[in-house]
Specification:
The chain is mostly helical. Helix content is about 75%, strand content about 0%. The radius of gyration is 20 Å and the shape is elongated.
Length: about 200
C-alpha cells in the first residue's frame, strides 16, 4: 500500500500539479480563515459569539470538547457540522496532496525519490488521513449532542493533535529540502560553467 501511494504521488508530481494544488489550497485556507462568510471561521464566530471550532485547537479532552460544543449553541453546532461536510472535505485533500507533491518534487531533484527518504512524501497524506478521522469523530459528537461520547471525544482530540503535528512536520521538511535543492542546483551550475583562465 505504501509503495502504491508513493508511486501515485510520484506520478502526479509536476510543476503544473504543484501550482494548481498550491493555488487551490492556499486560496481555500485563506478564504476559510480570513473571509467573513457563513461557511468561514469569522462567519462561524459571529454565530457563536466568538467561540471557535475544535479543529483549530492543538489538543483537547472530552471535557474541553463538550464545553466548546455547548458554548457554540444549537445554531453553531449545526453550522459546524455543515462546514465539516463541505469545506472540510476538500481542504485536507488539497493541502495534503499539495504538500506531498512539494516533497516528492524536492526528493526527485535531490535524487532521493526512490531511496530511503521517499517515505517523507507520505507524511502529508498521514496528516490528511488524521484530519478526516478527526472530522468523522467530531461529526458524530455533533450529531449525537447532548449525549456524551467521551472516548470518541478523546480520540478526536488526539487525531487533532496528530493532524497539527504531521502538517507542521510536512512544512518543516519542505522548508529543509527545498533549500537543499537550490544549493545543489547552484553547485551544478557552477561546476558546469566554463572556468575563466
Amino acid at each position: 500500500m505504501i509503495r502504491i501511494l508513493q508511486a501515485f504521488i510520484n506520478r502526479i508530481a509536476s510543476g503544473w500539479t504543484f501550482a494548481v494544488f498550491g493555488m487551490a489550497a492556499l486560496a481555500l485556507v485563506f478564504s476559510v480563515n480570513a473571509a467573513d462568510y457563513a461557511w468561514t471561521l469569522p462567519g462561524f464566530k459571529h454565530i457563536t459569539h466568538g467561540v471557535g471550532i475544535l479543529d483549530m485547537e492543538w489538543h483537547y479532552d472530552a471535557n474541553v470538547a463538550y464545553r466548546m460544543l455547548t458554548a457554540q449553541g444549537e445554531a453553531g453546532r449545526a453550522r459546524y457540522l455543515q462546514m465539516l461536510w463541505t469545506v472540510d472535505v476538500a481542504l485536507p485533500m488539497l493541502v495534503s496532496l499539495w504538500l506531498a507533491i512539494t516533497l516528492a518534487l524536492a526528493l526527485r531533484r535531490l535524487g532521493a525519490a526512490d531511496r530511503g527518504r521517499a517515505w517523507l512524501m507520505l507524511i502529508p497524506l498521514a496528516a490528511g488521513l488524521s484530519d478526516y478521522v478527526e472530522n468523522s469523530a467530531i461529526s458524530i459528537l455533533l450529531a449525537q449532542y447532548p449525549e456524551r461520547f467521551d472516548i470518541l471525544a478523546n480520540v478526536a482530540g488526539y487525531a487533532t493533535a496528530l493532524k497539527h503535528t504531521l502538517y507542521t512536520l510536512s512544512l518543516v521538511t519542505a522548508m529543509f529540502l527545498w533549500p537543499s535543492v537550490l544549493v545543489r542546483q547552484s553547485v551544478r551550475e557552477v561546476s558546469k560553467s566554463p572556468t575563466k583562465r
